[in-house]
Amino acid sequence: MSSPLVNRRKFLQMGATGIGIFAAGGLVRNSQAASSASSAPFYKLKDIGPLQSPDENGFMLPSGFSCRVVARSGEVPVGTSGYTWHSSPDGGACFPTTDGGWVYVSNSELGRREGGVGALRFDSRGEIVDAYSILENTSVNCAGGATPWGTWLSAEEVERGQIYECDPMGNDPAIVQPALGTFRHEAAAIDMDNDCVYLTEDRPTGGFYRFVATNGLPNLSVGRLEIAAVIEKDGLQEVNWLRVPDPLARYAPTRNQVLGYTPFRGGEGIVFHEGHIYFATKGDNRVWSYDTGSKKIEIIYDAKTSDNPILTGVDNVDITPGGDVLVAEDGGDMQLVAITPEGELFPLFKIIGHDRSEVCGQAFDPSYQRLYFSSQRGITGSRLTGGITYEVMYTG
Known about the structure:
The chain is mainly beta.
């Protein structure tokens, strides 16, 4: 699949460090682009301030921030597109466009081949100029991950789920990537340094996986699927990667093919940042950090043992260039919570009145002035018509 942003051949010629891109919902940039955005409000969050009283949308936000609705399930976001915004919006990411704007993509978590991915295109002023589908006829598209070569990996959270690689611009048809495994996929994160894709599985006994590309990334068609086995070494927890014999799960579920793998209690969002993989597990309300160099793994947040257990219902995961891990709540207090590199926790926002919903799909625009996300079932709690997609931005 070629990308309107950077096609595969050109990507390989330029190298990963030469391109400003979004990865797993969070922006990964070259040094020049990162420098220009370093003063933006969402670049580093430690001093963003406490939440204020709810606004007209029921949002508690830090001072100087405002919120607007950009799409509602069952409604047309922009009049000329004809595209009706999908039901049950879930994982998402942003991608820059050549005209200075950006595209926000959003999964649909409907089942029975009614899922897929929709997209909102914004111009350089932040106005919606188009809306369209980039994937259809799939089931329970939960989260996924953005790639450095400008595509979106949409993950099916069903027993024989697949990863679909999608063109955010909608020019090229989506293609399935079976080498990434057949299982109840949740999310994916790209490690270009080691030609790996890390994957989570949303089951109570799910695995933590990685795909090692035989011919190097961005080639996802051939590679080795492995599952993590955590061992103790020198008093620390370390991952030993074990090969999955049959990634297509023709004879047995992928996790059951490998004796001695370590179950993770409901894998959720996952993101790569500066040599580390961060991911969440909902069954025990934990957030993990895996060092891709040393192979050490540790828990950076556990709701049962934390001194500040404000985060529950852990779900989608994102990260800022400053290293703040953003974890969305599925239920809980309907918050987006930041975990700083120092281990401090604070809410970035809280939604009032959406008690039967979940926060999902958080992603930043290229300038870090705007944050996009959805309340999957909104105020009504309806999977079909309740979804609302928002933009939060700094207005001073």
